[in-house]
Amino acid sequence: MSLDLSFLLFSVDRNVYFTGNNKVNIIDIPKSSEEYKDVVGKIDTTLNATIRKVVKVDNRLLKDYYNQNKERYRISLNGIFQEMQLFHATADRNVESIVTNNFNKRYTVRSKFGKGVSFSPSAEYANRYCNRNVGYNRALILTKVLVGKSHEGSYDTYEPMFGYDTTTGNDGKVYVKYNDNEFYPEYVVYYNIDAIGLFSL
């Protein structure tokens, strides 16, 4: 169970955050770099958006939590699990809390496939699945996600069935996670969405 450390959050500049003794570095990725092209290349060409910038998140504490869970998956599932790169779309204003404290399922608004944190392999789908009230200035968070055993979820799924860790929906377009730090927010793509992107699914 993770602690909400948001009350300790302060920033000495826009690229460095602290929670207690944990330092979070936000690294701007140059548009000319292969890393930038690789991240942007994962975004569907059907997404009607203008990309403003891409940053990489270096949060040592969250990495440690994630890697501990990855090792637990490796042992308990005999190495049979996936480490996926999936998107989560949100408002600009939510990014600082997420990259500092990680995602929190208590803030979930849309829960068609389970009341956890939702991710998608499709940036376009993640954007459309996002709460329309977040407005035009948004962020796609490219996240490492651990997926072991999964089953179809529904609106009234509060936890996956015994022996499972993930629920899915819409033919694999949605993955829902319920346990803290089984995901790590690796990159943030800041973008402006066109009006068509505000339509919900």
From TrEMBL:
UniProt superkingdom: Eukaryota
GO cellular component: nucleus
Enzyme class of the recorded protein, top EC level: transferase
Name of the protein: Poly [ADP-ribose] polymerase
A GO MF label: NAD+ poly-ADP-ribosyltransferase activity
Species, as recorded: Diploptera punctata
SUPFAM superfamilies the record matches: ADP-ribosylation
Gene3D superfamilies in the cross-refs: 3.90.228.10
Residues covered by the PARP catalytic domain: 10-201
InterPro entries (UniProt xref): ARTD-AVP (IPR051712), Poly(ADP-ribose)pol_cat_dom (IPR012317)
UniProt keywords, alphabetically: Glycosyltransferase, NAD, Transferase
EC number(s) recorded for this UniProt protein: 2.4.2.-
